[in-house]
Amino acid sequence: MMGKQESKFKCRVCGHTEYTEVRQGNGILGPGAHSHMIHCYCEGCTTVFRDVRKFSVAETEAEGAKSKIVP
Ligand SMILES: [Zn+2]
After folding, report:
1. Staple 16 to which of 11, 35, 50, 65, CB 3.0 to 4.6 Å?
2. CA 48 to chain CA centroid, nearest Å
3. Cβ atoms of residues 63 and 57 within 8 Å
4. How far, in Å, from the CA of 1 to the mean position of ligand 1?
5. pLDDT of 17 above 90
6. Residue 10 · residue 62 · CB < 8 Å
7. 31 contacts 2 by C-beta, under 8 angstroms
8. CB atoms inside a 10 Å sphere around CB 17
9. Residue 15 confidence (pLDDT)
């Protein structure tokens, strides 16, 4: 199962602002159904990550105060 989600996301690899959340259900349909996130990936570069907030460029960071990511 896949769900598209838009939020304040900016890929720190390519700068894309959309990602796809990949979820897995527990096999139950209807009441009792439950799904959990397996991982997310960037729609731009398809880099897989799990923590959106950690992977996304932080707003303060995007302003470019001091931190730079050196490959
Ligand atoms: Zn990306």
Report:
1. 11
2. 8
3. no
4. 21
5. yes
6. yes
7. no
8. 15
9. 95
pLDDT by residue (tens digit) across 35-44?
999 999 999 9
pLDDT at residue number 71 = 75
Distance (Å) from CA 24 to ligand 1 centroid: 22
Q: In angstroms, rounded to a whole number, what is the distance separating the alpha carbons of residues 8 and 57?
A: 9
Say what the pLDDT of residue 11 is: 95
Q: How many whole angstroms from 36 Cα to the centroid of ligand 1?
A: 22
Give the model's pLDDT for residue 7. 57
pTM: 0.64
Domain residue ranges of the chain, discontinuous segments joined by +: 2-60
Which residues have CB atoms below 5 A from the ion given as ligand 1?
11, 13-14, 16, 42, 44-45
Structure tokens at 6: 């838009």
